[in-house]
Amino acid sequence: MARALEGREAASMERRRRRIVGAATELLSERGVEGMSVDEVAERAGVSRRTVFNYFHSTEELFIAVGNEILRDVIDNLKVGRTPAPAGTGTHAALLDDLAALLRSTDLLGAMIRLTHVLGPMGHQDARVLAIARDTVLSVSDNLTESAVRRHPDVPPLDVEVLVSSLLAGLIVLHKHWAERTGLADTPETRRLWSDLFERLIVQVRDGFVALG
User: Which residues are CB-contacts of 105 (< 8 A; sequence separation ≥ 6)?
Assistant: First the structure.
């Protein structure tokens, strides 16, 4: 009986947390980082201000949770075990090919477009926006690195982490240039542009990385 009560309480807490994150996401979309207050989040979520801070110790922590929620499908798709490991996993070339395939299999562009609409441009001068974008991308990096290390045990973990970091840093740069050229329009043509930019990044990384082994 006690275990059932604990389970119901945990489920209730998770629903409350998701209401808070959902309210923050809506308000950020409407008003931006500077125009949102914790009191408004609490009112829209139907909880007290104190409850918000019971779940999130700072507004920055709440913003990061919003970013993680936006990228949740991408993060889930990159978790270990979603796809079988490819053949020939002992080389750096196979690792890069696998990471590229994993990234192609997710709608990373769609998630980054939404993240930009909610938080503001990735290159925004507001230090909080930069921190939120950075910590959100780190969530992707952690899952992608964990997946790659397990799928390619013969590649040194340091090399895996460096490659994943290089790819994600490159993707942020690509997104900045893509957004400047498209105005964040999500169309077949702009997605083809994104695909072209992504393949160019893979070629550039391959030229330096595959030489390692």
Answer: 77, 83
Token pair of 65 as six digits: 């949770």
Asked if residue 111 lies in contact with residue 69, where contact means CB atoms within 8 angstroms, the answer is no
Sign of CA dihedral 188, 193, 196, 198: negative
In this structure, is the dihedral angle defined by the CA atoms of residues 191, 106, 155 and 171, taken in order, positive or negative?
Answer: positive
Token pair of 54, please? 């019971």
- Where does 120-187 have alpha helices with state H? 127-151, 157-182
pLDDT at 41 > cutoff 50: yes
Domain spans in the chain, listed from the N-terminal domain onward: 2-57, 68-212
DSSP summary character for residue 187 = S
Q: Are 63 and 128 in contact (CB under 8 A)?
A: yes
CA distance 143 to 146: 5
Mean predicted lDDT score pLDDT of the chain: 82
Note the CATH number of domain 2-57: 1.10.10.60
Element counts in the chain: helices (H) and strands (E) = 10, 0
Residue in the block written with tokens 């974008």: 133
Cα separation of 213 and 208, whole Å?
Answer: 11
Chain segment 121-139, per-residue pLDDT in tens: 655 446 666 666 677 777 7
Per-residue pLDDT band at 176 (split at 50, 70, 90): confident
